[in-house]
Write a structure and sequence with these properties.
15 helices; alpha/beta; N-(1-d-carboxylethyl)-l-norvaline Dehydrogenase, domain 2; 50% helix; 333 residues; Rossmann fold
């Protein structure tokens, strides 16, 4: 029996996942933008976020929230973290009981510091939450390049049932019951990606990038484990895999932010020039709060926070890292 899927959010990643899922099951994408809906329905293209790339011909779109979700057996949330709560509230009266809700967002809610699945549990109690995460750059996937991802839910039976909805020959989806670890890996790596981009923008070299990625993974793992994730998760697709893709690709929004900072562009100008959200900017502030709460040293994340929110420069950030004392590689910090 095929499940009806609804994807809420018409950005690049939401659209990409909607196109993938529509190959396996009836799928409708909801967007508040009428031009996006028209573009998908009439030209099989999201001209705003994925110009020139064709979507699966089975995908349909609507700007009517009720029409999108009232018959859905699966809800996939493709909106940025800051819009997760308001979108869930707008949809909740139309969603049937017990329908699973999967988040695609890799961030935290600014005011509460909640992960996205925590917001789902609060707004839609009784609906099994989950997260799809991994090294997934939307433009590459929609172009047909092979990729892998992780679908994480606490209930092993449900996650295995939903695995085939996302899986294809070129988009391989693995399952994991460490939902907390998988979600944190996706959210925390965005901050490290900004640091990696800063080095690239400043011309720091391959050795510097490798050091930032490696020590950044150590920071992510320490905080992620302290918050309830499993150590092994952070060496897999949701951790190291996602970190590598985001820290090295020109398609990564967070790497782009860091690269522009490394070139001396001010953060306000960078945000103004972008038409999509780079989650790592706001996440850096939250990560600092969480690191203090859990007593975890995160020197790379600290310097990203200083550049994004305290007016420091990329040059000063790397100088700050060089002043950090070093000890055993196994030591925190």
């Amino acid at each position: 029996m095929k499940l009806n899927a609804a994807v809420l959010g018409g950005g690049s990643w939401g659209t990409t996942v909607a196109s993938l899922v529509s190959a396996n099951t009836p799928t409708v994408l909801w967007s508040r933008r009428e031009d996006t809906v028209e573009s998908i329905n009439e030209r099989r293209e999201n001209e705003r976020y994925l110009p020139g790339l064709k979507l699966n011909r089975k995908l349909t779109a609507t700007a009517d929230m009720q029409a999108a979700v009232e018959s859905a057996d699966l809800i996939i949330m493709g909106v940025p973290s800051k819009a997760m709560r308001e979108t869930l509230i707008a949809a909740k009266d139309y969603i049937r009981p017990w329908v699973p809700v999967i988040s695609l967002s890799k961030g935290f809610e600014p005011k509460t510091r909640y992960r996205m699945t925590e917001i789902i549990e609060e707004i839609l109690p009784g609906h099994p939450p989950g997260v799809l995460t991994g090294p997934n750059l939307a433009r590459e996937i929609i172009q047909g390049f092979a990729a892998a991802s992780v679908l994480a839910m606490e209930d092993e039976t449900i996650v295995k049932r939903l695995q085939s909805i996302f899986h294809s020959s070129l988009f391989r989806v693995y399952t994991n019951t460490d939902m907390v670890g998988c979600e944190l890996g996706g959210a925390l790596k965005n901050v490290i990606a900004i640091a990696s981009g800063m080095g690239d923008g400043a011309g720091a070299g391959e050795n510097t990038r490798s050091a930032v990625v490696t020590r950044g993974l150590a920071e992510i793992t320490r905080l992620g484990v302290a918050m309830g994730g499993q150590p092994l998760t952070f060496s897999g697709l949701a951790g190291l895999g996602d970190l590598m893709a985001t820290c090295t690709s020109s398609l990564s929004r967070n790497h782009h932010v860091g690269e522009q900072l490394g070139k001396g562009v001010k953060i306000d100008q960078i945000i103004k020039d972008m038409n999509q959200v780079a989650e790592g900017i706001n996440s850096s502030r939250i990560v600092m709060d969480l690191s203090k709460q859990h007593g975890i040293e995160m020197p790379i994340a600290r310097e990203v926070y200083r550049v994004c929110h305290e007016g420091a420069t990329a040059k000063k950030a790397f100088a700050g890292l060089l002043r950090t004392e070093t000890g055993s590689e196994a030591d925190p910090g």
